[in-house]
Design a protein that fits this description.
By secondary structure, the chain is of the alpha+beta class. It contains seven helices and 18 strands. Helix 1 crosses helix 2 and helix 1 crosses helix 5.
Length: 298
Amino acid sequence: MWASVRASPRIAEGTVAKSCVGVCAKPDDPRASEAVRTLAKGLTERGIAILFDEAAAAAAGAPAETRTRLAARVDLLVVLGGDGTLLSVARSLGDTDVALLGVNLGTLGFLAEIAPEDQVDATERALRGEMPVEERTRLRVDVERREQGVGKHVALNEVVIGSARSRLVELEARADGRLVTTYRADGAIVSTPTGSTAYSLSAAGPILLPSVRALLLNPICPHDLSQRPVVLPDTMALELRARGGEGARLTVDGQEGQELAPGDSVRVRRADRPLRLVVSPEHDRFEILRSKLGWGSG
């Protein structure tokens, strides 16, 4: 097995008694709305209580909860959409340890592995403790300006610092306070193993299996071609500082971020709590890579 797998402390092995499922859905997506109604009907028939986020509640015609409150109240979160929807939900969990089960309504499905037709059975199996749960590293991101905090973020895939104006940026990179290098590049990526198959892969980074306890530091189109991706222990605290120029932009999981001023410091370290992701026992990681990346099909 390629990751730390254990049953959720909220999920009692062999029983679904007193269980409650939270459902999160991709907003304004007809496929997600239909999947919500199908899942709600199937779980209700099996006596499983359901709560909904705003998008799922609109499809089900039910009251809505915020995703953060939902995560604190349920035994399992089912996410209906694609990997982007799951990334968004993963950042809203706060300090809860609730496990996520992703139903793939998108294209790639690296994170959301469950097929829509299997969603009801997979949910009940997860509640019974019969589905493996992988722990995925998340990143804590703190932005400082003149030693004052100006931003906090959580990432599951990656943290990207890039040019805000399509020009080279100059970034000083440190690991545990020690200078790694200074990049003159389109930007730099700090990626988790989960994110190694996302933007970092497009920037010629290596693929890491989710069980690898590491972070990737990967320059984007560096001016100095000898600067290559570096794999670091995930116990290290990384700092990227924008030097000179017109500033840069921080982007987290490709979905949120903020503008950076020259001299701003972006500090990245492993978050205290990993994401707990329910995965399909019918697939292994190499099978997923072969399928999603088309290995051996040429």
